[in-house]
Amino acid sequence: MPYYRVVGEVPRKRHVQFRRPDGGLYAEELMGEEGFSSDSSLLYHRHLPTAIVKAEAVEPDEAAVLTPNLPLSPRHFRTQDLPAGGDLVTGRGLIAGNADVRMSYAATEAPSGLYRNSMGDECVYVASGRVTFESTYGAIEAGEGDYVVVPTGTIHRWVPQGRVTAFVIEASGHIRPPKRYLSKYGQFLEHAPYCERDLRTPAEPLTAEGEDVPVLVRTRGGLTRLVYRNHPFDVVGWDGCLYPYAFNINDFEPIVKGIHAPPPVHQTFEGPNFVICSFCPRPLDFHPDAVPIPYNHHNVDSDELMFYAGGDYTARKGSGIDVGSVSLHPAGFTHGPQPGAVEAVLEAVRQGHTRTNELAVMVDTFRPLDLGPAGLSVEDPAYAWTWSR
Fold this sequence. Notes:
Elements: E1 5-8, E2 27-32, E3 40-45, E4 52-58, E5 75-78, E6 93-97, E7 101-108, E8 114-117, E9 122-128, E10 130-135, E11 138-143, E12 146-150, E13 156-160, E14 164-171, E15 199-200, E16 211-219, E17 222-230, E18 235-240, E19 245-248, E20 267-271, E21 274-279, E22 303-312, E23 325-329, H1 341-350, E24 357-365, E25 370-371, H2 373-377
Parallel strand pairs: 8-16
Antiparallel strand pairs: 1-18, 2-3, 3-18, 4-17, 5-23, 6-7, 6-25, 7-14, 9-12, 9-14, 10-11, 10-13, 12-19, 15-19, 16-17, 20-21, 21-24, 22-23, 22-24
């Protein structure tokens, strides 16, 4: 993250003796990206973070296998029809993905076990409900509309308060604010649609007792369950620029133009070969001759996946798209408003309609997206032909 934080107790200088009340040393741990050349944080543990007593391989999840989008076609997946189950880690139903990013959906009331994704960062969008994110850095309370960004390697768990639904984005690398929003020193610039004040981070350490504590670890080699001698939630303090945080989609300040602007104005985060955009309620385009609705477009270098989180998508009326839907528009296919949508929105403007009421999370990828079994299980087979009606 672009700014420095201190939580709990830390010594005055890095890598010096830092002693417990009983005189023993706290164990210092560096969490760092890109081989000591990017953001990092130092965490101070009561016990050794290296002390494991058991390691066992976990069989791969066959429900996480991807298949090519063939024949090439736009797709509509109804996540509303997916069964609830598991937790926010094991209950993820894979919708689509590629070597850079995977998108899943989860609906659950169950707390997860401890989990560490060592393949890349995660961005979990809470679509409904409330959940506590607990980690070695501390806890974050999250609710509807929150993005929770989890750095690679963070040991964490999810504790829902009732039923929670979430759209999960798993990267093969790091998820960050777009560079164009930041100064060369990492501060959000004045033109950015959000800033440091909008980000919520752990405010105090979170500690838990326990011995022989299992942690599910995902690496590029597969899944392993490591058993730690002591509970990993034993950090008394940390400092640095690498930590989990939450950002609510309603704190995104839309960039408005007189004539319809393309999706980059909605960009919220960037990852390796993909971007994440937030479509939020905003004033309609205000040029007297504006067509305040997306034009037909063909992104020749990217696939576009959209999770419809709330509101009303005028441009998609008649397509079957509803809250909870996921659409996939692949490169090689031109997409745009449904037939009649342009005339309908122009008539609404003439009658005094001045704002959009849409809420959606979009992921654009620069490699083709393959299809996941959960998505295929709830696909609307008629969607591809809705522009021909």
